[in-house]
Amino acid sequence: MKKIIPGVFLTFVLLTLFGDVRPAWSASSSNQETKKSGAFSYKRETKELIMIADTELASRRVNENYFPLGIKIANKRLDGFVVSRETLFLVDESGNAYSMPDILKLQKEYKQLAPDHKFKSQTGILGDDMLTSFSYFQKNSSNFFPQTQGAARIIDSVYIRTQGYMEDMVYFPMPPGGIKGKAMRLRLDIPELKTPFEMVFIVE
Hints:
Blueprint: E1 4-5, H1 9-18, E2 34-36, E3 41-45, E4 49-54, E5 66-75, E6 80-84, E7 88-91, E8 97-99, H2 103-109, H3 113-123, E9 138-139, E10 157-161, E11 164-173, E12 183-188, E13 197-202
Parallel strand pairs: 9-11
Antiparallel strand pairs: 1-8, 2-3, 3-4, 4-5, 5-11, 6-10, 7-8, 7-12, 12-13
């Protein structure tokens, strides 16, 4: 079942007072900054974490019920944390949060898994250049959405130790109104952080 969490009242107030509150990529605080780091890639880096999202394949799936997002998450200074379906969410412009679907539900309702995996095998999840800033970190295995049931082991609870990282292609339900041209957020909500870690991205 699609999990939707109502947005907070603050979002409504900001939109009412200031209109569109999409971030400017070049202007943000030193502790919270999202930058467009490539034609399809967005990156946010703080003292604790690095999060990167690639939207190239998502831009080809805007008419589907689900869409893929290539991600990398690196742990710079935290003791360790878990990335799972219970900690990683998509947040739309209205503040509604969506959890990742169950693999069986996705395989039943989404017919692009094979083409998506072929694309990933040819290009990499984000491209090799996205690895340079933490190339010495330890990579942790992650496989939230295998192409075919039984073909590979599902790894959907990924522990990332200090100076470790994960990369994967994950899927989220398509929000009402779609994603094209919208300021979406990827949210990591873990107890090791006082507030959720969020990064804004736009599917062109």
